[in-house]
Design goal:
six-stranded mixed beta sheet; six-stranded antiparallel beta sheet; alpha/beta; single chain; Ribulose 1,5 Bisphosphate Carboxylase/Oxygenase; UvrA; globular; Rossmann fold; 34 helices; Helicase, Ruva Protein, domain 3
């Protein structure tokens, strides 16, 4: 008899999805529940593929068939029963979006409220002279005039001609015929009978006197008629010319938003004017993206040691281009002192500019204009030439994304771009300091409430250093997840199951408590918060802990522990041992010292404050500091991107630096992140690490394969020949179910083995190629013990803790931590790595405390092979294991961007200014 869930728990029975081993468990509702365990043990499978996916799938199935075809369909997990589910919301550790239009403001929807805020409360200021531009109704103009001091003498004038040449005789004749008496020409008053002959070639300004008045009781009707007449004649503008009194002079009034001095007209204020995704608001040059592509000479000619004859300009390496442009280049060389065999590095600055941007004297267009013209002519050329292009801020809007008219609107002293460029904390302080009067008070109240609430939620999750204009593609997965978490805080939902994937990633230990308070506030409202996490403070804060293990892959998938934290501290589980201190990661006994270094000078990328930074080579360096202090700006935007440029590789929006010294000591630079090793099931650990190449050679060398004439390509499931053609080597066939999730059926022809029967007949030591792909790394090491080249690669996979992985396991089923360690293993497989620089950003993401120790050993193994490793990390064990530490801060955003401490971990601990040092003791 099966158990039925009570109303206080989510009951799961018979969970066999992925590596879960027929689990049955109850997850308490309305509590903070943490799921922990080694990487690949089944944590995400339980939390996301069963709890979230099943809750989402059931909700979608409750909708009509018509509605379902427009919604993403969740696969049905392999589980017997799930009861007690509530609507589920997933906040995953997603790879940052590549959409250049997606910003922090748009994702949180704060930008939508901001557009209404500026449209309803903003004032136009002339983009040319900076003076305020006021648009008024006829009644407002009349009331403004009536508000002047009683007894004031003034004239109402209609501006007819402004700075135009001519005698204007016809105009004066018409005005006289219409009954008008006086005009003002260039500031001098004349009757129409006395108007002098105007010079034909001189510009004149002519204003018509509509009425002359003295402000007193009873003139409102006459004033109103005169104002309407003046506005009609003056194209919706009039001039109030005060005669005598304390402040004589002209006051320009208009029913249009037009600058009285510069005559620049402004559009009607609307929320669309402030949208960079709308033609009404987007900068016409960059179409609202904020950056433009341009041809970069360093990408066109990365090797300055080459000449024009031997391929110095990459697009013209072929003989056809040489014949086409050769004569013109020779003529250019005669003018600027070079030949076709002169290395580019010997070109003078003038010759370099002439080569790339043209020389009229030599009738040479220039490499860049020729490429730009070719790009306009052909879409194929456009795709090919993209490799020679870089991104840079738009020259017109300077990255603001909006039209000049939108940027001319201010609330207080800020326009839209200036507000979106402030840190969230500063933006919140600025909004709280605003003071409105009159009708603006009523309009501003609901808008300020929404804006301050949402910005406050961003501060609560530790993102006060970000700006609303920050592109989402520049954020870490943890930052992106916390942004979505802040959005959920604002929704105020109750009775929901929130499933989060390591929300602490990217957070400095100093800021952890704020995140925990946020999770507690979600739970206190009556929600279930299910968190997949390795962070020790988060685990200790939980109401209930579920540990999956005991190991990873097929060695995991079991419940090792379930219960409150106080019982976990006594449990004989891997996490329990680390929390008790029975197991720990010991720092190395000695620290390496560097002989060489790379020096980056005058770094001003993002919030970095003109730093001169020395990065030691041949050691493991950890760059740390509070969130938003400038770690990625320094390592990725400033160092990594400029290293790529130096090597002639593409790097969009490299940081602002003065220069880099010591680049000659770096042979190659590799960034290792947690992105998948492949986006399809065809990619797997064997293919990515080149292990499969060796295996296919072994099978091709077997007696049966030689007899049949099979080459290594016969044993590939990606090409015709040996693969099963019924499923094209996938092993399964996708059946489209329209408004239901697609169904994957095991291929009947090959029974899921991917190969045709002839290929499977070839065996090595009693196993065919499909059997080998089903082996784990551990099994393969035993099976191929007599093949040293293959064993070396298999040993490295085992060294990084992945001996449980199947060789043919689809890349789409690997966790981020597993993908990253597979990438590291490929590099470790190389015998020596002199001059290699490895950059890792938050490599402990997805790793259990026990696996962090393995990662540290692997990173030190890279350094032992003469490589340099730079790690951006908050994990205290990784920091303590480093040879050198750069601690940035002291705060985030505008309060960061400085080097607080530098040296060994012991030096950081001893520095009283280092926030990080306080957590290392």
């Amino acid at each position: 008899m099966t158990k039925t869930a009570d109303k206080n728990s989510i009951h799961i029975e018979g969970a066999r999805h992925h590596n879960l081993k027929d689990l049955t468990l109850d997850i308490p509702r309305d509590e903070l529940v943490v799921v922990c365990g080694p990487s690949g043990s089944g944590k995400s499978t339980l939390a996301f593929d069963i709890v979230y996916a099943e809750g989402q799938r059931r909700y979608v199935e409750s909708l009509s068939a018509y509605a379902r075809q427009f919604l993403p369909q969740m696969d049905k997990p392999d589980v017997d029963k799930v009861e007690g589910l509530s609507p589920a919301i997933s906040l995953e550790q997603q790879t940052a979006t590549r959409n250049p239009r997606s910003t922090v403001g748009t994702v949180t929807e704060i930008y939508d409220f901001l557009r209404v805020f500026f449209a309803r409360l903003g004032k136009f200021y002339c983009p040319k002279c900076g003076k305020p531009i006021e648009a008024q109704t006829t009644d407002e103009i009349v009331n403004t005039i009536l508000g002047m001091e009683t007894g004031t003498k003034f004239m109402l004038l209609a501006p007819l001609v402004e700075h135009q040449k001519g005698t204007h005789k016809d105009l004066f004749a018409k005005l006289k015929k219409d009954g008008f008496v006086r005009v003002r020409i260039g500031g001098t008053m004349y009757t129409l009978d006395e108007v002098p002959e105007l010079e034909k070639h001189k510009k004149h300004t002519i204003d018509l006197v509509v009425d002359r008045l003295v402000l007193k009781d009873g003139i409102k009707k006459r004033l109103g008629d005169s104002v309407e007449l003046a506005l009609g004649l003056g194209d919706e503008r009039l001039i109030v010319s005060v005669v005598g009194g304390d402040t004589p002079g002209d006051i320009v009034m208009s029913t249009l938003s037009t600058c009285p001095s510069c005559k620049i007209s402004m559009p009607r204020l609307s929320p669309q004017l402030f949208s960079f995704n709308s033609p009404q608001g987007a900068c016409p040059t960059c179409n609202g993206i904020g950056s433009v592509e341009y041809f970069e000479p360093d990408l066109i000619s990365p090797n300055k040691g080459l000449t024009l004859n031997n391929g110095g300009v990459i697009p013209w390496k072929n003989a056809t281009r040489q014949r086409q442009y050769g004569p013109k280049l020779k003529k250019l060389g005669e003018h600027h002192g070079f030949t076709m065999d002169t290395p580019l590095e010997q070109f003078s600055d003038e010759a370099w500019d002439a080569l790339f941007y043209g020389c009229p004297q030599s009738n040479w267009q220039g490499v860049v204009p020729i490429l730009e013209y070719g790009q306009l002519q052909s879409g194929v050329w456009d795709h090919w030439s993209a490799r020679f292009q870089q991104s840079r801020p738009c020259p017109d809007c300077e990255g603001a994304r909006l039209k000049p008219e939108a940027l001319a609107v201010r609330v207080g002293d800020k326009n839209m771009h200036e507000f979106a460029s402030m840190s969230i904390q500063r933006a919140l302080d600025w909004l709280n300091a605003l003071d409105f009067s009159g009708a603006d008070t009523l309009i501003s109240e609901p808008l300020l409430k929404e804006l301050t609430h949402r910005l406050g939620f961003m501060v609560n999750v530790g993102l006060e250093y970000l700006s609303l204009g920050r592109n989402m593609g520049t954020l870490s997965g943890g930052e992106a997840q916390r942004i979505r978490l802040a959005s959920q805080l604002g929704s105020g939902l109750v009775g929901v199951t929130y499933v989060l994937d390591e929300p602490s990633i990217g957070l400095h230990p100093r800021d952890n408590q704020r995140l925990l308070d946020t999770l507690r506030s979600l739970q206190a409202r009556g929600n279930t918060v299910l968190v997949v996490e390795h962070d020790e403070p988060t685990i200790r804060e939980a109401d209930h802990v579920i540990e999956i293990g005991p190991s990873s892959g097929w060695l995991g998938g079991e419940i090792v522990f379930q219960g409150p934290v106080d019982k976990l501290l006594k449990a004989d589980s891997l996490t329990g041992k680390y929390l008790r201190g029975d197991m720990f990661i010991a720092p190395p006994e000695t620290r390496r010292t560097a002989k060489d270094a790379v020096t980056i000078r005058q770094v001003e990328t993002n919030n970095l404050k003109n730093l001169d930074v020395e990065i030691p080579l041949g050691v493991m360096t950890c760059v740390t500091g509070v969130s938003g202090s400038g770690k990625s700006s320094l390592v990725v935007d400033s160092m990594y991107k400029h290293l790529l440029l130096h090597r002639g590789q593409k790097a969009n929006n490299p940081g602002k630096i003065g220069g880099i010294d010591g680049l000659d000591k770096i042979e190659k630079v590799i960034s290792i992140d947690q992105s998948p090793i492949g986006r399809t099931p065809r990619s797997n650990p064997a293919t990515y690490t080149k292990i499969f190449d060796e295996i296919r050679k072994i099978f091709a060398g077997s007696k049966e394969a030689r007899k049949r004439g099979y080459q290594p390509g016969r044993f590939s499931f990606n090409v015709k020949g040996g693969r099963c053609e019924a499923c094209k080597g996938d092993g399964q066939i996708r059946v489209e179910m329209h408004f239901l999730p697609d169904v994957y059926v095991t291929c009947e022809a090959c029974k899921g083995k991917r190969y045709n029967s002839q290929t499977l007949e070839v065996e090595y030591k009693g196993k065919n190629i499909a059997d080998v792909l089903a082996m784990t790394v551990r099994q393969a090491r035993e099976f191929f013990a007599n093949h040293p080249p293959l064993m070396r690669k298999l040993d490295v996979l085992a060294q990084v803790g992945l001996e449980y992985l199947q060789l043919g396991q689809p890349a789409t089923t690997l966790s981020g931590g597993e993908a990253q360690r597979i990438k590291i293993s490929r590099e470790l497989g190389k015998r020596s790595l002199p001059g290699a620089l490895y950059i890792l950003d938050e490599p402990t993401t997805g790793l259990h405390m026990h696996e962090v120790g393995k990662l540290i050993r692997v990173l030190h193994a890279l350094v032992d092979k003469n490589a340099t490793v730079i790690v951006i990390e908050h994990n205290t064990d990784v920091i303590m294991a480093s040879d050198h530490v750069l601690d940035l801060g002291p705060g985030g955003g505008e309060h960061g961007g400085q080097i607080v401490a530098s040296g060994t971990p012991e030096d950081i601990i001893a520095n009283p200014d280092s926030v990080t040092g306080k957590f290392l003791t």
